[in-house]
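Quick one, probably user error.
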């Protein structure tokens, strides 16, 4: 179930079925596209500055490793910047989906690895950018996982690491599906200080530590209540919430309100770090 959720959050969805409820005057808002809009306001996918995330620039001279790449949303941005791409995931189907997604891109090269990352089949100090988003909450040994990411980074390499924020995880308790907090899904809830400690103990310097995603935290909560499937999340709760958030972001103080709410309940916490 959680794999389907991650795919929904990171892969463009097919056109949604026509709503069976609601006024014909209310336009459908694609939750994925709205999620991209929300993420951009939080510093993701900055084409102008060439940053995958605020403070994480990617250029054609970089070699980017994405561990737990899913269907390749993050590395697609990096490929468009002309970087060399290495993707690693335990799921062969996701690796193939990413390979197809990057076909014909501006990437210098694309290498695809099906691996559990213990260890990574990559030489020491061989990459300049390491990305691993929403992965560490799944692994059996977080410290060993981070040590392996640090091993393959060059001196001065930048790291973009994210994990579910505890505020959103606690919000889901009692409402999420039974397997949400069970292996192979979220086997731990990671506090902010714990996340920072793991990263610094692995030998990295934390450059920034932020959070975002109030929109998705509430969307997930309403999803559990709606009782629909990820393949076609068609329910008034989800449609109405998506429309509300869309209207909010377009309002004069929408971005400021979003920023405040992201500090209250965030889907994700994001660390940018540097290898000395």
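Nope, works fine. Designed sequence:
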């Amino acid at each position: 179930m959680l794999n389907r959720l991650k795919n929904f959050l990171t892969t463009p969805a097919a056109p949604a079925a026509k709503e069976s409820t609601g006024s014909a005057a209310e336009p459908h808002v694609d939750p994925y596209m709205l999620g991209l809009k929300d993420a951009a306001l939080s510093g993701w996918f900055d084409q102008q500055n060439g940053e995958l995330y605020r403070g994480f620039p990617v250029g054609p001279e970089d070699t980017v490793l994405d561990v737990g790449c899913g269907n390749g949303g993050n590395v697609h941005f990096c490929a468009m910047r002309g970087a060399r791409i290495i993707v690693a995931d335990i799921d062969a189907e996701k690796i193939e989906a990413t390979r197809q997604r990057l076909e014909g891109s501006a990437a210098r090269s694309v290498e695809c690895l099906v691996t559990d990352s213990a260890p990574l089949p990559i030489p020491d100090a061989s990459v300049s950018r390491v990305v691993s988003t929403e992965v560490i909450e799944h692994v059996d040994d977080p410290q060993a996982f981070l040590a392996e990411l640090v091993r393959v980074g060059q001196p001065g390499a930048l790291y973009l690491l994210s994990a579910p924020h505890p505020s959103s995880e606690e919000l889901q308790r009692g409402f999420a599906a039974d397997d949400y907090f069970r292996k192979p899904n979220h086997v731990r809830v990671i506090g902010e200080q714990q996340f920072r400690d793991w990263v610094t103990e692995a030998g990295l310097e934390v450059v920034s530590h932020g959070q975002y995603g109030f929109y998705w935290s509430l969307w997930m909560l309403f999803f559990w209540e709606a009782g629909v499937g990820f393949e076609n999340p068609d329910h008034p709760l989800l449609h109405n919430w998506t429309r509300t958030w869309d209207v909010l972001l377009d309002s004069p103080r929408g971005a400021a309100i979003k920023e405040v709410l992201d500090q209250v309940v965030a889907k994700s916490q994001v660390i940018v770090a540097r290898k000395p």
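The longest strand covers residues 153-164.
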